[in-house]
Structures are given as structure tokens and as C-alpha cells.
Write the C-alpha cells for this entry.
Amino acid sequence: MKRTILLFTIIALAAGMAVPAAAMRPYKAPSQPVTVQIDTVSIETPQVDTTFAELPQVDTVEIEVVEPEPVDIRPAPLKPGDCIGIFGISNYIDSTALLYGVSVFENWGLRVKFADNLFKKNGRYDGTLQERIKATQAMIDDPDIKAMISTRGGYGAAQVIPFLDYSPLFENPKWIIGYSDVTALHMVLNNMGIETIHGPMATRMEGDTTSVAFLHDALFGDAPGLSITTNFYCREGEATGKLVGGNLSLIYSLQGTPMALDMKDAILFIEDVGEDSYAIDRMMQNLLLSGKLDEIAGIIVGQFTDFDDYKGQDLSLPGIIYSKIGNRQIPIMYQIDAGHEWNVHKSAPNYSLYLGRRIHLKVDQNVAYFEYVD
């Protein structure tokens, strides 16, 4: 297992919140000693006014990033009596929002633990950065917890993911469940070979009995693949590869970072919410120009809730996707019920997907479907 040590400078602010600054690149010493002749010079030291010379305390922190050899790690199915942890790395929620979700888990026979940062409002977030890191790490480290489900999305996961130690998940795998902002965590874990579940979150279950039942099957056994009637926007073909992806905005935002999604020979799943046509075009253009769309074996389009093409003046969603895929002969499954539709409009379910697991995708003139193959 290859391990890389990255150094980050942490500046402690007055509020006590540590914020990561730029990573420091290690200096490589020359192979041979170098002798430099320096002439003696006279330096006159001026007096310095130090009235405002106080600087924030700076600590150098070593963060170990685990880069394992390619593996396939699948957490075990849950059983009654197991423990599920509820964690929050994004937007704040209050305790009443969890009542329904907790009752669902208890009806499944599960014990419930709460992350320590929950209900600690810090602006838009569920606690300070340190609180979110510490509480999430504690759940990852806890061998009693067999699954971790996020409270909600929003923003904040990208702040947390560089500072987590994922190595305990290689010895004691556990399901990580969520969608939207949790895509950042899915990406990191799927890149490491650890399967996760793209599915409902703990505050997004009330009334959505279909999605809740599907999540139960995903956690306690094997959720099936999905099928739809082939529509005009599907492209025929078949391919096999790992199902990866999630929220397109998150995939786009982590491009060019060490956490960028590995799409090599994968089936890419994308969904989003509240984005204009030009914004989706910009994100897909990024995947095109970076060569990511040349790597994928197929694409599955989920819900693009409240997509706005300015009353037809801009490209439609299928128009954008096809303009970027071009002549690449890959299957396109358009459009499955996975994403934000229930959260926003209570109009369609959010089916659970095993991310990081191999699927076989086939689209013919009648049916478009995928099934898990191992």
C-alpha cells in the first residue's frame, strides 16, 4: 500500500477554526554538495515598528493520505441489531428533521448513533470545520458502526474530505450513504475501491416509501438494477464497468484535484438540481476538454431537477449531453429516478445505487437497463 505524506499549513483563526492553506512541496536536495563563495558585506539593520507585527499562530500538521493499490471492498449487508451512524459534513439541520429517519432505522431493527457535531450550528454548516472532521472521523473509526448515513447535502463535504483518515475502512468496511454534496465522499471512497450507496439521506425520507424500501434492500441484501422503456434520448449499445459519479456539480468542482473522480472504463452516472443550461454545459465541457468523456464506457443520466433552458432558448439537457458525447459510440441510459426530485417536488423516488460496483449496461430499441454483475 503506497502512502504519501502531505504537509498542510493550518492557520488558527481567532474563532478557533483551523482552515487548510496551501500544501508545501518537499524540497529535493541536490545529489552532490555545492560550494558557494559568499563575499562579506555590511548590512545595516533598520529599526522596525512591531506594533502590528503579531501574526496568527501557525502550526504544521502532517496529514497521511492513503493511496492503496486497486482493490474492491464491499461492506457486509446489515442485519437487525447492527448500528447505523448519522453524520453531517454539510449544511446544518435541527433535531426535529431527523425524527422520521430515526424511526425508520429503528423499525428496521437498527441501533442509531449520532455524530457529535450534529445540531451545532456554525453559519450554514453543521458545526465548525474541526467539529465536522473530528465527529466524522470518530464514526469512521468506530467498529460498532456498520453504516453511516448523511443528514443532508448543501455544501461542506469538500472542506472535510482532505482531512479524514480512511484507512480503518479497509479493515472494517461500512456503507456510506447519501447524495448531492455527499458525492465528494463517494468519489474519494470509490477511487480507493470502496463501494458506497448513492441514496436517500436521513432527513429526506418522510413520505417517500418507495425510496426507503429500496434503501432497505440495498443495505440488508442486494438492491436490483434499474430498467426503463427506451426513449428518444437513449443511445443503443452495451458496456460493462464500475458505476461511479453522482452530483455533476461536485464532480466538476473536484476536477483537477487529487480527489478527482476516476472514470477510466467506468459507467458515469450524473444528476443535479437547480442548474441553468449554460451551467450544465460548462460542467460537461470541462469533462470533455479534460478527456474524461473519452475514458467512460457509458453514461446514465439521472434527475436534473429544475433544469432551466430559458424557455427553449438554450440547449436542452439531452442536447448538451449529446453535444459533448459526440460520435463516441457509448450507450446512454436517459433518464432514471435518482437525484433530487423527491426532495424538491415530492414527485419521483430516489432509487439507491451501488457506486463503485461493476454493472452491465444495455440499451436496445425497447428497454434500457443495467444490472450488477459481481
Remarks:
- The first helix runs from residue 99 to 107.
- The chain has eleven helices and 16 strands.
- The two ends are 24 Å apart (CA to CA).
